[in-house]
Amino acid sequence: MANPFTMGVASGEPLPDGVILWTRLAVDPLHPDPARPGGMPPRAMPVRWQLAEDEAFTRIVREGTAQALPAWAHSVHVRVDGLRPGADYFYRFRSGTDLSPVGRTRTADEETATRAVRFAVANCQRYEHGYYTACRHLADERPDVVFQVGDYIYESRQAGSYVRRTDQAGAASTLHAYRNRYARYKTDPDLRAAHAAAPWVTTWDDHEVLDNYRGAGDGSAAFLRRRAAAYQAYYEHLPIRVRPEGGGLRMYRRRTWGRVADFMVLDARQHRTATTLLGAEQESWLMTRLRDTPVRWRILMQPLFFGRRFVPGPPPNLRTDSWDGHQVERDRVVAAAGPAGLVVFSGDVHNAWAGDLKADFLDPASATVGAEFVCSSISSRPPVTDSQAVLGANPHLRFFDGRRGYLSCVASPDELRVAYRGVDYVDRRGAPRVPVAEFVIPGDGVTFGNASSK
Ligand code: FE
Ligand code: CA
């Protein structure tokens, strides 16, 4: 049998004492037979794993055997605990005599820590639109943790021009088709490198299931089956802590680094109703944590543009699929963060933006209560945008850039620093990393300014 570690390795969900290690066995990642995902035999396969303090595996601290089951497409999610906080580790898998690549991971800081945390933000990687060079640059930075805020895959097939092709004729709607879509994305070596370089914490947006879906969609059994298939494939291909249950998958959670950064990861899709974006339970969880957290930086990691963005011209001028369609709920979230302020990271719109969060977005003189940093996309094409007109109509929006890229950030008690990194092209490999802009919020403030570049 060929080496089954074609999809690489990944780790995720860092806690102060543990991480999740992931791989999936697939000798033929795009195997066409739905009964044999990844071209694997339909039986359980043992997978050995090792975690060490050094890259040469001379100091192994944990090891064991996991069962890769056909019901989960031979994916493996190993829960490792008992580790030291704020520490680097290295891991690998073995199946028979075949070894996986080595991954580097890192635990979160302990509850009382005040060390700086280095994190990256990425999103929106439509395969047909180009190469994942930005992932390669992100991997080279080896951040403590990577946050992926949605559109890890696109279920639909690209109409019109493309840089490279996925294999399926139509949109993914079955478990097999979603699996093979993830498998296709993971054939990209730069994406695999980014997973091997650091632990990831992910949340989804719409395209992991269906463009602009909300909650239970049309409520039909067919949609709920499709959503359940998409959620299962998501689980099977990412290093997450929870399993799908009853057609759902609990996505919202917090990941906390000491006293410095409280990352609240939101699910903007699964719990939506006609009137709420988060749903009652998630909102109540978020409000409680925003009010009670003892941590300096209250950070929302979520897919959708959070601040007001009025687009001049013919209606619709506000995007109802986003937080502008839920203004009262947005005001409640901002208010709960209080005087310490809120920092929001988002994606979805395929261009980079940054802006102030306002107590009243319609009154530029009202208090600034936080900041939003919108990451553009790893590869997904941007819409045509008159950025000058949008900046002019929204005085709280202060920055725009139209390149593909990611965010490289450092949070410490003294400041939160956000660097926009870009690439000038994705239609071929090898684009150099461009330093686009860098902003900083002082430790005692809520408003960002330009950082002197380092
Ligand atoms: Fe997208
Ligand atoms: Ca989206």
Describe the 3D structure.
With 454 residues, the protein is an alpha+beta fold. The chain folds into two domains: 1-107, Purple acid phosphatase-like, N-terminal (Immunoglobulin-like); 110-453, 4-Layer Sandwich (Purple Acid Phosphatase, chain A, domain 2), CATH 3.60.21. It has helices spanning 133-141, 175-185, 189-197, 221-237, 280-292, 327-337, 387-393, and strands spanning 9-15, 18-24, 45-52, 60-68, 75-80, 88-95, 98-99, 103-106, 117-122, 145-148, 200-202, 253-257, 261-265, 297-301, 342-346, 352-358, 368-374, 397-401, 404-411, 415-423, 434-442, 449-450. Strands 11-10-9-19-20-21-22 form a seven-stranded mixed beta sheet, covered by helices on one side. Strands 12-13-14-15-17-16-18 form a seven-stranded mixed beta sheet. The model has no long low-confidence stretch (mean pLDDT 96). Bound molecules: fe (iii) ion and calcium ion (CA). The site of fe (iii) ion (FE) has 6 residues, from loops.
Question: What topology emerges from the helices and strands here?
Answer:
Layout: E1 9-15, E2 18-24, E3 45-52, E4 60-68, E5 75-80, E6 88-95, E7 98-99, E8 103-106, E9 117-122, H1 133-141, E10 145-148, H2 175-185, H3 189-197, E11 200-202, H4 221-237, E12 253-257, E13 261-265, H5 280-292, E14 297-301, H6 327-337, E15 342-346, E16 352-358, E17 368-374, H7 387-393, E18 397-401, E19 404-411, E20 415-423, E21 434-442, E22 449-450
Parallel strand pairs: 9-10, 10-11, 13-14, 14-15, 15-17
Antiparallel strand pairs: 1-2, 2-5, 3-4, 3-6, 6-7, 6-8, 9-19, 12-13, 16-17, 16-18, 19-20, 20-21, 21-22
Helix pairs in contact: 1-3, 2-4, 5-6
Bound molecules: fe (iii) ion and calcium ion.
Calcium ion is lined by residues 150-151, 205-207, 348.
